Amino acid sequence: MTVVTSWSTAVTLPEGPFPDVTVEAQLRFDTSLPYAVCLVFPPLGGGGEAQWVFARDLLNEGRHAPAGHGDVTVAPGRAGRVLVTLCADNGRAVISIPADAVTAFLLDSFTLVPAGTESDHLDIDAVLDRIRS
Fold first, then answer.
1. Model confidence pTM above 0.90
2. Contact indicator for 109, 5 with CB cutoff of 8 Å
3. What's the pLDDT tens digit per position in 32-83?
4. Burial 88-99 (b: 16+ CB within 10 A, else e)
5. Cα 127 to Cα 122: distance, rounded to the nearest angstrom
6. Range picked from 16-20, 42-46, 103-107 for highest mean pLDDT
7. What ranges in the chain are assigned the alpha helix state H?
8. Alpha-carbon torsion, ordered 5, 10, 11, 16, to 10 deg
9. Which one of 80, 99, 111, 113 is most buried, by most CB atoms within 10 A?
10. Which residue ranges form the domains of the chain, and what is each CATH number?
11. CA-CA distance, 133 to 131, in Å (whole number)?
């Protein structure tokens, strides 16, 4: 059985043109993809929601010390924030998320799938079906 938990939170883009404007975002965890978390932004300009999927361990480690390289990095920020940097071909965005929201979300995800038991929750056939579709 797949269980999804999600936390809505207000985030900011401190390096964007309006660094103090908040945007609603969600952190999602799906037990059928136990190694991953998803950062989701609402639809903009008539498009669909924007989603970034990255390692749950990266988000957890990055709360305490800079972690990751490549398209996603996570680091502790000032004033009780966690900074997630997302890089793509068309640019880079730094997302500032309240650390307490990240911690609460991760506690929920680790309750659903404790660290070290991820492979017990992984349905390889379902993952392959998702990749193929």
1. no
2. yes
3. 889 999 999 988 777 788 899 999 999 999 999 999 988 999 999 999 999 9
4. eeeeebbbbbbb
5. 8
6. 103-107
7. 56-62, 99-112, 124-132
8. 140
9. 113
10. 4-124 (2.30.31.20)
11. 6
